[in-house]
Amino acid sequence: MKDKIIIKRSDFIFAKRLLWKMRNPRTRFDEKKFMKEGKDYLFNYADENAGPLDPNRRAFLKGVLVVLGVAAVASAVPLVNSLNPSVVTLKKFPWMIITDADGNPIEASAVQVNDPTIMLFQYPMLGDITFLINMGDENNKPVKIPPTSVLIPQTGKTYLFPGGVGPYDSIVAYSAICQHLGCEPPEIHFYPPQYFKPNMPTPDFIPPSAYQAGVSAGAKSIIHCDCHGSTYDPWKGAAVVTGPTVRPLPYVQLYWDSTTDYLYAVSMNVHAPPIMDHTSDLEGAAYLDTYDESTGCPKLILSKGQKPQNCYTPLTSDGNTFAGGSG
Ligand code: FES
């Protein structure tokens, strides 16, 4: 096992951003090219995708290469997990409008139903990658996802998942960081119902073990992690279908503003297990770029008329937030 690298918070944010870009299908890091061309490819890639590569950042990346090794960086998996950042804390869960990669608010009606490529956003901290899924049936008709009680196999306790939001109550958001050992997309995938019907031959791209587990559990679609086979049911609050994970994927509570069709991430459930590797969902390595430390609120808020002093979401006794309204 290689040593951890102790780094400055600004470098950690840079590394998080870099890793995010490396895994984004639109800006995918070309591992083969990197193995062939070496560090120059990495430097150029980082410069283009994660911000200007000043001498300090260049030295930081060189250090990462030396300590982690080229193969580890190429696979991108251990890069940020091997760093040792300081922890920052949120006072409460802020509201955050969900935007596309260009910073434009996403409209709920435009979120493709059953999209297996999945939309991702980060909440509540930088690097907390989250699936945004518009759940549908095998004909791609949106399906209402009702509230449900979710079992935590690790403790035997349960918590309440409040169900989907949007025009059809079909849009849900779950952490995209596997609760077993932290694998992230593309290792963890969403498989919609049309690829996952009982009694059909197992499609090549679904691991047979995941397919069988889902069929046995009566799941209509699944989220499956290729790293060690954990499977989750996105129709039922991302409850555990198969281990080795013993914890469901945490959900992010969404709010849909029907007047604008915009979606907001507003909270997480403090009674659910936190995101993998976190002691609390209110702690993390770095604030989101959109978070304003001076007001403690997101910069890109809010419902019309909402003021910074009420940009937080009060929790109810079951760990959930309000059921609508602008706070
Ligand atoms: S990290 Fe996902 S199953 Fe192990």
TrEMBL record:
The chain crosses the membrane at residues 59-80. Coiled coil: none annotated. It holds the Pfam family Rieske. One of its GO terms (molecular function) is metal ion binding. It comes from the Archaea. This is Rieske (2Fe-2S) protein. Keywords: 2Fe-2S, Disulfide bond, Iron, Iron-sulfur, Membrane, Metal-binding, Transmembrane, Transmembrane helix. The keyword Ligase does not apply. Residues 169-263 form the Rieske domain. PROSITE patterns: RIESKE.
